[in-house]
Amino acid sequence: MALRFETVKILHVYKTYVPEDFTGVPRVIHSIAEGLADYGVESRVLALYSERLSGEQFRVGRHSVCPARRDFEIASSGFSVSAFHKFRRLASEADVVHYHFPWPMGDMLYLTFGRHRSSLVTYHSDIVKQRRLFRAYEPMMHRFLKGADAIVATSPNYLSSSAVLERYKEKVHVIPIGLPGRASVDEDLVEYWRQKVGDGYFLFIGALRYYKGIDTLIEAARQSGLPVVVAGSNDKGELDIAQLPKNVVYVREVSEADKEALLDLCAAFVFPSHLRSEAFGVALLEAARAGKPMISCELGTGTSFVNAHGKTGVVIAPADAGELSQAMIHLDSEAELRRAMGREARLRFERLFRADTMNQEYLKRYHALAQRKRTEIPER
Predict the structure, then answer these.
(1) Out of 51-55, 242-246, 284-288, least confident range
(2) What are the angstrom distances between the C-alpha of 67 and each of 64, 238, 301?
């Protein structure tokens, strides 16, 4: 007989979602929504879309997406007039509203129509780049975080290093980001990529953004002379393809299946992000899941929680091409060390970063917050 679970209705709130965005935060939302569907969790996602997709509610797997039209952007953050009306209705039907921070529009939605709903905030990252705008936004941010019923940090490292989270640590819980188990690798794709880029290279995968440290990686490749493969969207022009040294191959953005094939062939995964905007590093999780040693930078964020220095790989100072070059040379020359670190990376993934583990922790928080809503006066 199938088990039955108490139904909990969750509304996720974030600036982007699939199919327009399936990186970072949207991937986490998708994993939670799909992973908890068998446990009585009915999930909806309110996100902003271009006009082409901003019409009726649609399904993604076993959950629903409620799109609102993106009217304009300020500092890469979307805003929408229609989202207020949609949020008011959707929040009234939810047991818990799950906000994904940072997104200033989410703060505004909470402060206008969300304060009487049970609320959970996953604090994915500090605001790092827009310092001038942050000073104007900061009072609203603190009203939002102060009012939230519970806050989740994605690593103990980020909780201990974020000045913002320090103010609310009495209601912060740590729930690391998790991924599902690794899909089987397509051997035909492995052979395709072997013919195209070879094997035994250092691999970077990710969207090429200002905080990814790509310039440092290219300079380290020049210094070391070791083969490097870079895969990811270059829509912001962070990588000058015409100026790449001969030992660096850029293969653009790749599919999930191609990603696993490239991971299969690489000697190690390199992740040179140098700013706190890199709050966790899901790409590191993918490398750990594939049993690969890693090189990353110490940022005081989740990257050093995923990559444990001396155990699963090497952690270096940020924006230091010389140190990165030396770390690459060291791993390249020590095959047994690479294998040992790769084994430990895989074990650490299984122990700490499975999607099932993350989802069950969120399920506990959802039930606790939903029960609070049901036992309190409806309008607080």
Answers:
(1) 51-55
(2) 10, 30, 31
